[in-house]
Amino acid sequence: MAKKTAKKTDMFNSALVPLSHGLPSPIAASIGVTLARHGYLDWVLGQVMYSLMEISVKQGRVIMKMPRPAHYIAAVRDLFGFHGLETGYDFDDLCRRLDTAERSRNMLMRSVYMRDTNSKGIQVQLVRSAWDPGPGGETQAESQRVDRKFLARRRKDVDDAVRAAEKLQSITNKLLRKMHEMRRNRPGFNRRSR
Q1: What pairing do the DSSP bridges indicate for beta strands 112-116 and 124-127?
Q2: Span 138-176, pLDDT tens digits
Q3: How many Cβ atoms are within 10 Å of 50's Cβ, its own excluded?
Q4: Considering the entire predicted model, what is its pTM?
Q5: 156 — phi, psi (to 5°)?
Q6: Count of CB atoms within 10 A of residue 78's CB?
Q7: All residues at 6 or more sequence positions from 66 whose CB lies less than 8 Å from its CB, including other chains
Q8: How much is the pLDDT for 154?
């Protein structure tokens, strides 16, 4: 007796067609806010890095590209060690949040927005890009409905990373001010005079 093997087939909805004339305003606005928040996240992370490197934003833009979250965290930890700064900050949690925020941003930016021609109203679906979606893209569903719940999750992913990055920025600024004050008042702490 031959065994029946179940063969999984990918379902393709032939009724889905790309939205070529733009998204409905509420969806576009929500996506825009999330992407703007991610841009702000990148700015906060840059401020932390440039402060630790003791360089200006202009110099930082010339010499650095935004690294992947794990590389960014490793660099920040190394700079904390270089300066002798100690903190109980949870860098691993920030790394997870940055990874999640990056996946959400990539999902919103590198997917194809489609509409279902069988639906009476405009139902927007997000379909994975035909190209390599980048790190984390393999976890993205082939197709998913773009609704308030979906957009709220993407926004929360980014907002969680922003809060964690702002906390790191605050801690970094506090520790660097303390270090600079010690350098100013105690010549033995000023490495530049050696």
Answers
A1: antiparallel
A2: 666 677 889 999 999 999 999 999 999 999 999 999 999
A3: 18
A4: 0.80
A5: -65, -40
A6: 11
A7: 42, 45, 46, 72
A8: 96
Residue 18's closest CA among 148, 135, 102, 143? 143
Q: How far is Cα 21 from Cα 40, in angstroms, rounded to an integer?
A: 28
Q: Which residue has the tokens 């005079």?
A: 193
Residues 131, 176: Cα–Cα separation, whole Å: 43
First to last CA, the chain: 84
Nearest CA among 39, 41, 16 for reference residue 146: 16
- The per-residue b/e assignment along 160-173, b for 16 or more CB within 10 angstroms, e otherwise, is bbbebbeebbebbe
Residue 140, H or E segment = none
DSSP category for residue 84: T
Query: Per residue in 82-103, pLDDT tens?
Result: 999 999 999 999 999 999 999 9
Closest CA to 161 of 81, 82, 120, 103: 103
CB 106 within 8 A of CB 124: no
In three-state secondary structure terms, 115 is: strand
Convert 15-47 to b/e letters by CB count within 10 Å (16 or more is b). ebeebeeebeeebeebbeebbebbeebeebbbb
